[in-house]
Amino acid sequence: MKPLLRIENLSVYAGDRPLLENLSLSLCRGERLTILGETGAGKSILIQAIMGLLPPSLRASGSIQIDGRDLATLSRRELECLWGRRLAMLPQEPWHALDPLMRAGRQVAEVYACVLRQDAERAAANARRDLAGVGLEQAGDKLPGQLSGGMAQRLAFCAATAGGAQIVLADEPTKGLDADRRDHIAELLRRKGEEGCVLTISHDLEVARRIGGRVLVMRGGRPLEEGPAEQVLNAPTTDYSCRLIQAAPGHWPRIERRADGEPGPAVLEARGLAKRHGGKRLFQGLDLRVGRGEILGLVGDSGCGKSSLGDILLGLLAPDAGQVARAPGIARHRYLKLYQDPPAAFAADIPLGRLFADLLRLHRLDASRLPPLLERLRLHPTLLERPAHEVSGGELQRLAIARALLLEPVFLFADEPVSRLDPITAREVVQLLTSVATEHRCALLLVSHDPELVERVCKRTLRLG
Ligand SMILES: Nc1ncnc2c1ncn2[C@@H]1O[C@H](COP(=O)(O)OP(=O)(O)OP(=O)(O)O)[C@@H](O)[C@H]1O
Ligand SMILES: [Mg+2]
């Protein structure tokens, strides 16, 4: 059978620094491949290369063939004709796939109308059906900015796949989704893979298991191990794959639960909080006391109001009822949040180093604290030379954590703080956050869709919805 997608000896360089080296793979109809691997391994770069969307500053060698045609020989117009029809991408950041000014239903209907030339009525009906299929039947009239991170992710999935493309590339399509929704998206991808072929990037081993097909493990720009999903996930042969698979939260020791000890005096107290969004009640009569150094979990389905609660606690969003009291005498900037979508926290085009320098200057912080913090987060200092859109999703997530910790927070609302990290790095980062909570008495409100992670790290858990 002729492959739909064939990659031979693909390498990508930034100057003389390789980001991806000598990668070859092919996918025929009915095949699924899931790529697991270290944050910064070059996974998203691979997907960008297949789409023909590498930034001009990067240089690629080797060949990529779609339906037997070499991408390098296609004009920009021919390439664009493939998008949505033959080749569809779900980018790592769902917001990048959505038009911020177009309502959810329209975003999907447009694909049916423009790509498949359906009349408006049929396109709208198909869009409604697709949205209902991912639990978004109520969200058709919403703008992307009114959706939660997980809802935006599901909307992006519908918009990307509506054109019926046979080659689907999905970059971490289930991050931040609760287990049921995650399994549902994995099932949709598995089915897409029966009609055409699917290449998925994920840090979630369960997603790889459910999609099935083959698994490829990558690290440092190189493929390490490839084989049938069951084989790689159950009996990996390389040391790195073994460690990666062992590092899933289900295997973390529970000892970390003891990390928070007895909660200290309150840093934050909320009484009778209520919030509605677009006619839906998110919560009502909610009381919460968070003590210094306490690690508290916050869980609930995608779209239930976790991020909204965080914004209310931080004074970024007004509640419909109730009050929030922060401890007196503590500077406002020490109450912080880690955004669910790290790009939301950084100016896109300014070198990260300049953003850090501004922060150090503004708050008169000791600049010598930055290098050890970066090292602890396994971030190379040269990353700071680039702007946010030129580092990987997981690198940016860790840079956001470094920036928050520099400010010595007393309360940190950590909204899915490890959603873009491989299990090994995720474990290290969670350990860092819990030790900051213990050593510096910073209260941590940890949002996660992963019950195993929350259970291992938090003594007390608040469930919304
Ligand atoms: N435009 C760019 N210029 C220079 N380096 C880049 C650029 N874009 C990405 N990189 C670097 O290339 C490496 C691979 O990036 P990539 O985004 O592919 O990682 P990834 O495997 O997707 O990681 P993650 O799991 O964190 O998303 C990273 O070290 C990143 O900093
Ligand atoms: Mg990536």
Automatic annotation (TrEMBL):
| SUPFAM superfamilies associated with the record | P-loop containing nucleoside triphosphate hydrolases (SSF52540)
Renumbered to this chain, the signal peptide range is: none
Q: Which Pfam families match?
A: ABC_tran
**How does this protein sit in the membrane?**
Peripheral membrane protein
Query: Domain ABC transporter spans what residues?
Result: 5-245, 268-465
Nucleotide-binding is among the record's keywords = yes
| One cellular-component annotation, GO | plasma membrane
Q: What is stated as this protein's family in its record?
A: Belongs to the ABC transporter superfamily.
Indicate what this protein is called per its UniProt record.
Answer: ATP binding protein of ABC transporter
Q: Which source organism?
A: Azotobacter vinelandii (strain DJ / ATCC BAA-1303)
